[in-house]
Amino acid sequence: MTGGGSLLLGIDIGTSATKLVLLDPAAGIVAEASTPAGYQSPHPGWAEANADGWWRNVCSGVPKLLELAGIASTDVAGIGVSGMVPAIVLLGDGDQVLRPSIQQNDARAVAEIDWIRARTEADDILRRTGSPVTQQSVGPKIRWLRAHEPEVMASVRHVCGSYDFIVHRLTGEWSLERNWALESGLYDLATADWDDDMLALTETPRAWLAPIRRPTDIVGPVSAAGAAATGLAAGTPVAAGTADHVASAFSAGVIHPGDLLVKLGSSGDVLYCTPDARVDSRLFLDFHLADDRFLPNGCMAASGSLLVWFRDNFAPGLTFASLDKEAAAIPEGSDGLLVLPYFLGEKTPIFNPRARGTIVGLTLSHGRGHLFRSLLEGISLGFRHHLEVFRETGTLPVRARCTNGGADSALWRQITADVLGLPLERLAGHPGSSLGAAFVAGRGLGLFSDWEEIERFVVVSDTVEPNSAAVATYDALYPLFRETYERLKDLYPRLSGAAQRAAS
Questions:
Q1: Smaller CB count within 10 Å for the chain: N or C?
Q2: Where does the pLDDT of residue 100 fall: very low under 50, low under 70, confident under 90, or very high at 90 and above?
Q3: Are β-strands 237-239 and 218-221 bridged in parallel, bridged antiparallel, or unpaired?
Q4: How confident is the model at residue 1 (pLDDT cuts 50, 70, 90)?
Q5: Are 247 and 16 in contact (CB under 8 A)?
């Protein structure tokens, strides 16, 4: 079953924007549109967003996209949605959004993480759920909400993720895609179902959780209400969709074991394709879109968002191009300046929500260009830490690509290639997750017969080769990056405690 047309609509609920793409399975991308989004951090370590704002962006973006493409809504054959994972959207009676969504990089539930870890065996949790209990896990945040917002939790009827929320708004049907389930920490890999022990421990009722779906499953058609709100044709099939980083990696051509993707986005993602589930306590694990592959991966809580913070606070009015120019004039290593990019705590590979952003080595001879370059280098050194973990698990990159907004920076691309010591292929006109979401819908509707068909829409624009002299500099800097964290990690919670005492 398909809609009346032949085009596929992909919707991506991203941190900084809601992105839409129309894909012609035969000819490629027809049109793209983007509406700004954002998130708030009302307290240190918090990351929240307005789920109703995502829906408004979809409702306003779809008509603009259809008009831009010059097509009618009946030309859309099917819809796929991707989004941040595992964001938490709480819905009450009448599907009312009860509070801002808690994002995947939110680090508030520190005490709850410790509480759960103290009552479980780390190896058992890792084996059963595929991931350790971390700041990304859903369970600790549910416990935090029960402790701090009991009146909200008393009204909860459903818990869903970012893209599952949009699928529900479009169709009126409930679903939770399997990567939200896997990353939630509430899912049992062996049984492919919710883990009752983790549900009980985190006080998460099964009744709140929808059926688990594969990405290509058709959840339902666009409802009359969804059609009225968006301008889409009622009856258009909607697929369950998938996590944004999974869709983005796939649409970048990460389809064969050995393929590696570095995403220079708001957060820093690094994903590796394997033929089996390689579980490691320092990494996340996701399902690949293809059933016989997996994506061990890491996510740094702050990457591009750290650069935006620096620009807005210390270089107001300047563009990133201007900051790049200043930083490019600084030698590799930033004249002895080193940054730990843990400004939102950190997820992989250290899993420490108490970690803090750290700048080491400042002198009066350092200027803004030094600081900006050291931020780029610190983020790239964080990526290198992930590659070290990948290699320890027996994974060696065969092909490496980079995407997202940071890939447009020649300086950041070069620094990343130099720090990793790998050639990096940059993709031309890569729309990211929205393309993957559209393809998922097409695969679910039978418009694509093989996952490898995504290669028809992937174009490599250029390859950045690592500079041997710079590689040597970063080889010497990397052990200092690791040692600095090890020396400071016991200090971070004391700093947080001092700040909390001062605030109270």
A1: C
A2: very high
A3: antiparallel
A4: low
A5: no
Q: How far is it, in rounded angstroms, from Cα 186 to Cα 86?
A: 11
Burial of 13 (0-12, 13-18, 19+ CB in 10 A): buried
pLDDT at 499: 73
**30-43 average pLDDT score:** 91
The alpha-helical segments, DSSP class H, found in 316-463 are: 320-328, 368-392, 410-420, 433-444
The answer, yes or no, to whether residue 16 has pLDDT greater than 70, is: yes
Structure tokens at 310: 């620096």
Give the whole-angstrom CA distance, residue 448 versus residue 445.
Answer: 8
Pick the CATH number of 7-244 from 3.10.105.10, 3.30.420.40, 3.30.750.24, 1.50.10.10: 3.30.420.40
Among 385, 375, 377, 381, smallest CA distance to 348 is for 385
Enclosing H/E stretch for 160: strand 158-160
Q: In sequence order, which residues have a C-beta less than 8 Å from that of residue 341 and are 6 or more positions away? A: 268, 300, 302, 303, 306, 357, 375, 378, 379, 382
Q: How confident is the model at residue 396 (pLDDT cuts 50, 70, 90)?
A: confident
CB atoms within 10 A of CB 286: 24
423-446 pLDDT, tens digit per residue, is 999 998 778 899 999 999 999 999
Say how many C-beta atoms besides its own lie within 10 A of residue 238's C-beta.
31
Contacts 24+ apart (CB under 8 A), 125-128: 125/185, 125/198, 126/279, 126/281, 127/279, 128/188, 128/189, 128/190, 128/195, 128/198
Q: Mean of the per-residue pLDDT values for the chain?
A: 95
In the structure encoding, which two tokens stand for residue 445, read together?
A: 């509707």
Residue with more model confidence, 382 or 395: 382
